[in-house]
Amino acid sequence: MRLPRSIPRSIHGRMLALSVATTLVALPVAGFAIGGVLDHFVTRNIDARLGDRLRLLRAVVRPDGTIDQGLLDRSDLATAIGADAVWRIDTPGGTVGAGLPPLATLRMPGPPVGAERGPPRGRGPGVGAPFDLTLPDATRVHGLVLDLPEGRVAVAVPRREIEQPLRGAMLPLLLTLAIVALVLAVATLVQLRLGLRPLRVLRDRVAAVREGAAAEVPEDQPEELRPLAVELNALVRDTAAALATARGSAANLAHALKTPVATLAIELGDDPRATQVARIDATIRHHLARARGGAVDRRAATALQPAVEGLVAVVAALHREAGLVVTADMPDLTVAVDAADLDELAGNLIDNAARHARSAVTVTAVREGGFVVLRVGDDGPGIAEADRMRATDPGVRLDERGDGHGFGLAIVRDLAALYGGRLTLGEADGGGLVATVSLPVTAGNGTAGR
């Protein structure tokens, strides 16, 4: 199933995106919740102050519903309540106060403050019911109203007395939440870095096994990754066993066919059909090389210098009477190619160049990135550019002279491709052919034993 484009494809990206989304949701929710708590706390304190003032108003109402004007004058109630407050007393005996509309119009949304939230500052229940109101001059007020048997009393203060402390507290709150978000972001990155480190280490271990620098993946892994390491090692062992079986089968087949073909060639002698037998022998070698290469050991490591120099010495000795000079300039590099496959591959290139060269064959190698580029050039007639692609097809001979059968370059091409490399043919300096093949290097820099 394909993932939507909006979902990151990496585990790191998914976990980071989930963490960011969670933080973006959690912090506003936390800010809203803390703001609500602060609002409740400030409002509770204001209600406690209003409750004290409400008790002063209640004291001037007589049991018969009249207002004790003398007590009201002596207590200097306006000063005691506060200049910022508005208040009102409505009784059958009269009305005093200013700033509030008739109290009969007030709607009390809930039970008395003392009954709903607990008694403010230790006072008993029935202190009053809260209300919020917008006055005719657009001033928003918050107050308490209390129903008495003799009437109704109310006192209120502007809403700004609640909002100003809240605004003063919100800025530090927002800064605190921003710091928390920053700390969470850093903690998330550190957590992802440390939490996913075992995956990166496991990836490097698997790469080391593939490149031949290690035989297996360490199974001393975190609990979640240990089963994966065990399965990877089992896969490596199964692959090695299958490779050994394939190589054994190829060797057995080669041994079984070698003697009958050689016997048939001897019996034919100079018979023209001996050429066909030789072609059969070359065809068998080609397909056996492909069968062997089809199960290549990609963890192999072979030193390039001794392998190529040994082949150069053999080819030079075979062509000594013709005055052919074969030279090699090999760096100390190790290629991720099986030793037998490297002999087959380099031997075919050097032998093909020696059979077509006039006087000299040169073999060089350089490292380019993750590959060793092996070049074998000769000073022979070369191959026309239009025929170079066809020259690597099995059984194709562009030059019918000599004893070749047209399988050498095909074997090189197939083996190089199986190891992730490629064969290209070009023109050498001064004419002739240069065959270039790229082979993967191993993780290490030392030479491996053959």
Separate helix tally = 11
Biggest sheet, spatial arrangement of strands: 2-1-5-4-3
State the end-to-end distance.
Answer: 46 Å
**Helix-strand string:** HHHEEHEEEHHHHEHEEHEEHEE
Helix content: 40-55%
Biggest sheet, open or closed, and with what strands and sense? 5 strands, antiparallel
**Percent of residues in beta strands?**
15-25%
Number of strands: 12
Unreliable stretches: 110-126, 394-406, 445-450
Q: Which secondary-structure class do the elements indicate?
A: alpha+beta
Q: What's the pLDDT, averaged over the residues?
A: 78
Q: What does this protein look like?
A:
By secondary structure, the chain is α+β, with helices and mostly antiparallel strands. 50% of the residues lie in helices and 16% in strands. The protein contains eleven helices and twelve strands. It has helices at 11-59, 69-74, 77-81, 113-117, 160-195, 197-211, 226-268, 273-293, 304-318, 339-356, 408-418, and strands at residues 86-91, 94-98, 129-134, 140-148, 151-158, 302-303, 325-329, 334-335, 360-368, 371-378, 423-427, 433-440. A five-stranded antiparallel β-sheet has the order 2-1-5-4-3. Strand 3 (129-134) and strand 4 (140-148) form a beta hairpin. Helix 1 (11-59) packs antiparallel against helix 5 (160-195), helix 9 packs parallel to helix 10 (339-356) and helix 10 (339-356) runs antiparallel to helix 11 (408-418). The protein starts with 10 loop residues before the first helix and ends in a 10-residue tail after the last strand. The model is unreliable at 110-126, 394-406 and 445-450 (pLDDT under 50).
